[in-house]
Amino acid sequence: MRSTIQRRFTIKDLGNVKFFLSMLVERDRGRRIIYLSHRVYLDKVLKRFRTDKYKACATPMNVKAKLHAKREEGEAADKVLYQEAVGSLPYAAITTRPDIAYATGLVGPFAADPSMLHWAALRGFCAI
Amino acid sequence: MDALDGPNRTKWIEAINSELMSLEGHKTWSVVEQEKIPEDAQAISSRMVLQEKIGEDGKVARYKARLIAHGFQQREAIDYSETYSPTICFAAIRTVLSRAAMENKEIVQLDIVTAFLESKVEEELYLRLPKEFDLANNENVILNSKRIELGVSVTVRLNRSLYGLKQAGHNSYNTLESDFTKEMRMHASKFEAGI
User: Fold this and answer.
1) What residues does each domain of chain B span?
2) ipTM above 0.95, yes or no
3) pLDDT in tens, A34-92
4) Backbone dihedral angles phi then psi of residue A28, each to the nearest 5 degrees
5) Which residues of B touch A9 (CB under 8 A)?
6) Nearest neighbour of B184 by CB, restricted to A4, A29, A39
7) Which one is predicted more confidently, A35 or B48?
8) Phi and psi at residue A19, in whole multiples of 5°?
9) Which of B23, B89, B90, B98 is most worth mutating to test chain A (most A CB atoms within 10 A of its CB)?
10) Cβ contacts (< 8 Å) between A13 and chain B: which residues?
11) Could you count the other beta carbons within 10 Å of the beta carbon of residue A7?
């Protein structure tokens, strides 16, 4: 198979699958289990938004947190940075981190006009 | 370009050279004289994009240079038409992986080097090369085995699809799909074009 492809294209043989689309693939052949994670991707995201120093938390979001549009409360946050942070999440949410999917959906609507409160909520659950 | 003034200058130049070798190797373009470019053609500018590739350990694994065409300067219906290219859905990846886990099969990973350069471009496109070409070999900028004078902006006619073009992904998928079918008897799934 490899050689048939090689006849037509220049290829780089990466051997057994272990890392693609910034996803880590770990196998336990004995138990026939594959573990997928986006550790590298998420570390990069956390570092970029300087949330890497935050402690990991057990739940992605405070259940009591009520988020409102900015005009009601809080100081304005860096809009572009907020949008970039919000935008980094869906990839993880739809692939290996469905646990943050709901929280990702909650912080999204404020991307047009975020306050520091929204930023805090985002950072809080980004510390995953 | 700031990266070229930094501490990794040699690595970047190496990366640019390797990209040039690929481009030349695929006969990506033909050098054309300024007078021979049709008047109604609009040459697209381009840029050498330098990127640190992060490996599985989260560290810089590779210094990479890629020549990117400024596709946003292309005119619809003149410089490109079809642009659709399928994207695999994650569930499909999971399905393949879980089948392999279940049946205890090997999963190997292959990367087609400069895949976009494998497909021909149908439209008549002209590209202005960036000035970083001067830096590549210091004095030896050789295109189509001809030495190019330094500091001169070079315009080429594209033979191959190039990264950044509107139709690049579309062309690339079609090439892969038809060649895998023809030469390897591997068919794309009717339900998931990425498999």
Assistant:
1) 3-184
2) no
3) 999 998 888 888 888 877 666 677 777 777 677 887 666 678 888 999 999 999 999 99
4) -120, 85
5) 112-113, 115, 118, 179
6) A4
7) A35
8) -155, 110
9) B90
10) 108, 110
11) 9
